[in-house]
Amino acid sequence: LIGLSSVAQVILGRGEFGQYFSINLGFGIGVTLGIHAAGGISGAHLNAAITLTHCLLGSLPWKKLPFYVLGQFLGSFLAAATVFGIYYEALYDYTKGNFTVTGPNATAGIFSTYPAPYMSLTRGFFVEFIATTMLFLGILVIHDEKNNAALKGTQALLTGILVLGIGLSMGMTTGYSMNPSRDLPPRVFTAIAGWGMDVFRAGQYWWWIPLVASPLGCLFGVLIHKLFIDLHNQPVLESEKEKGQPGMEVS
């Protein structure tokens, strides 16, 4: 809700009520609050790609997958509908009632991600794959108790900062979806709310890229973490003994 609203304010305000940085900040704040809200309930499963990856790794029962994904999709759909309601008059003023997916007054990008006109599907897939790899790798590092985990209570904030950093560095070409739950439900809403089936045809049928690249990126992030970090982790006591330093200094 906060992320999509920040996009709406930038686009519909014609740059007078925020810039690209405020969009990234909005999504970072939204992720932080979402983790605080759902962390103790579900482990903060806000991303279908991450939920699926946990099931594949055996750290989450498969029977929970449909319920978690349903909750994610429903929340994202309702967020899009709420943003539509908040900015309804602004949308009509901006578009004169002509909701378009592409062109100078396109507004579908408020709700879902679309690639830049110069991007190919192959390159766009690669961007989304790498962005999601960095997202899940960063989350694993933040929560890695055997390595240099974040201080207790700061994980949500650091994950929000991680999303902010990815947006600031990799968001220009594809909109850094990194999350099927963030992209598909709002796309379905826009198809219903007046933008039509162009939301699925635009960008060379871009809609399926976030659905496929994100889970693969998560799996690659797990592989990197396992090979280059987790396999080399040492028990804290052994590490402290070898270095001959107090635990606080080692940390």
TrEMBL record:
Q: Name one GO molecular function term.
A: water channel activity
**Span of the secretion signal?**
none
Q: Which GO terms describe its cellular component?
A: basolateral plasma membrane
Checking SUPFAM superfamilies in the record gives: Aquaporin-like
Keywords from UniProt, A to Z, are:
Membrane, Transmembrane, Transmembrane helix, Transport
* Topology class, membrane: Multi-pass membrane protein
Entry annotated with the keyword Transmembrane: yes
Q: What is its main location?
A: membrane
CDD domains xrefs: MIP
Residues spanning the membrane = 20-44, 65-88, 125-143, 155-176, 205-224
Where does this polypeptide localize?
A: Membrane
Q: Which InterPro entries match?
A: Aquaporin-like, MIP, MIP/Aquaporin
User: Its catalytic activity?
Assistant: H2O(in) = H2O(out); glycerol(in) = glycerol(out)
Which family is it part of? Belongs to the MIP/aquaporin (TC 1.A.8) family.
- The protein in question is named AQP7 protein
Look up and give the organism this protein is from: Crypturellus soui
